[in-house]
Sequence to fold (171 residues):
Amino acid sequence: MTGAVIAWALVEVTLAFIVFCADSVGEETRRPGERVARGVLWMVTLTRWFTHRNVTKLGRFGAVVWFMVTTGWLLTLEYDRITAPYFLILAEITMGFVVYCVDALSADLTNRPGRRLLRSAFWMVPVVRYLRDDDSVALIAASVTVWGLLTTGWLLGLLTDRVAAPLAGLT
Fold:
């Protein structure tokens, strides 16, 4: 397979997943098989949402996209600053921390740090649940946590690049 074909397939799968997650909200409930079909036909589904002004599903679509974009920015920032073997460790810790923080807001998990640590170790499962859940509270909390980490990382990166590096040259 060429790189272009792999990139195209990745785009298709990503958009199908995003539409599948966004299709979980709204007044009509669909079986998972129907949601998979609507995800695979993401272009038709999105066109329908836009032309019929389905604000609930478009809002959820935007929330899922925003979470994925900010997470990508955060992990890219880490990747650009950390060498390869340490990046994978830091990325795992970062996503585990996001899940730990979101779970701290949950009434069921607030006073259960051991359970929160276990969920953080296997962070992919809770993140997929946040994305698929019809309640957007966990997804919003995850987005805010990622955004806070991202903007803090940018600030520290700017401080290092624009202030600390030039001052180090003075000595």
